[in-house]
Amino acid sequence: MSDPTQDKTANQWLREACEVLDIDYEGFRAVIPDLLDLTRDVAHGPSRPAAPLTAFLVGLAAGRDGAQLPGHGHDRVAQITERLRADGYLD
Questions:
Q1: How far apart are the first and last CA of the chain?
Q2: Which residues are in the DUF6457 domain (predicted)?
Q3: pLDDT at 61 over 90
Q4: What is the pLDDT of residue 67?
């Protein structure tokens, strides 16, 4: 998201979504770059349609563990990224 207008719109929407879901926006904001990288890697690797669903799975796993953002979110993204690398999708 390099367009400042898109960044503002995305951040506004994500702030609202976090409020509705009772999620700390600042904690979530810290993992946004990792999640965007993850969805890009999945979309350009194993499956484009699976990209947002993989991000959702990462969130489910972090939530199931009772994780607090951002630390555990980073850990879960790293696990999936490592799998992508092991499967040959990343250098």
A1: 23
A2: 6-84
A3: no
A4: 67
Rounded to an integer, what distance in angstroms lies between the CA atom of residue 60 and that of residue 52?
A: 12
Domains of the chain by residue range: 26-86
Q: Is the pTM of this model over 0.90?
A: no
pLDDT of residue 12: 95
Check residue 88 and give left, alpha or beta (phi > 0: left; psi -120 to 50: alpha): left
**Higher-confidence residue: 76 or 70?**
76
Structural contact between residues 43 and 32, judged by C-beta atoms closer than 8 angstroms: no
Helix pair angle (50-64, 25-44), 10° resolution: 140
Structure tokens at 58: 């990462």
- Residue 47: burial class (beta carbons within 10 Å; 0-12, 13-18, 19+): exposed
Dihedral sign, CA of 12, 51, 75, 62?
Answer: positive
Return the closest-CA partner of residue 32 out of 53, 48, 49, 15: 15
